[in-house]
Predict the structure of Glycosyltransferase.
Amino acid sequence: MTLSVVIPVYNSQETLEPLVEKLQDCLSAISFEVVLVNDGSRDNSEAVVYRLADRYNNVQGLSLRRNFGEFNAVLCGLTYAKGDYAVLIDDDFQNPPEAILTLLERAQSGHFDVVYSRYAQKKHAWFRNVGSSLLNYLTTYLLDKPKSLYLSSFKLINRPVVQEIVSYTGPFPYIDALIFRVTRNVTSVEVPHHPRQSGASNYTLSKLVALFLNVLFGFSTVPLRLFAGLGLGLFGLSLLLGLVLLLGSSLQWFLVSGWVVVAWVVLLLTGLQMVFLAVMSEYLGKLFLAQSGLKPFVVKEKEGANGLS
């Protein structure tokens, strides 16, 4: 099978059936499947998912026991996907189904592991656009993402990378972070972005904040090291200040009052405490990453009986 179309479903009873029908039409020239994952929808989406799975022999219908979140639903869909490539697409028609072939062609012609979509003009609400921009800046430094690459939810991933992604066993998956733990062989192509056809966006401000915190603390030890740098800076500043106070008092350059000494002691102890906390946090960070279930290395290709080539 060439392609698996993975769709996380949440409160999309109005758009889901036309979307699957459109996919059947647009992708008829290739062998493909559609993996629908109902993420605890509150409307009739679950029944629509099962109805579509009964109607089409290339549609899988899955339903989670509760709402786990978009990335958890995507991880579930990737786990059940069978195609050589998997494409992630929203359930609201903002990602045009016909653009899937553009991503697939780019991946096959350039031998890329992942192809992201990029938009000339996004049709999201303003706060989501702002949140996406902040998230892209954040992931550039935390995940070592190329600055020019926009991390869109509409993307295509090849089978080897999918297999590595689904090995993640933690409760808070972030698909883009898992991708960049595996590969840097990524690119992007421009595709249209349409207004939402029905209902309101499921991305609320609180969900964007939760995603921001998940990326910040869930896949990197950079925040720990920033505090370590701050602690070392304060400690160094306190030592320098102590030297200045000692020389100034000894050479009678100025009179050292009691509150200055107290301030110096507080600064010194604060710096020491932050250094000790940074050391402990570094150990905890290493333990956290070790328990994340991610592999220490990923082999791209193996040839022959005795080695790699």
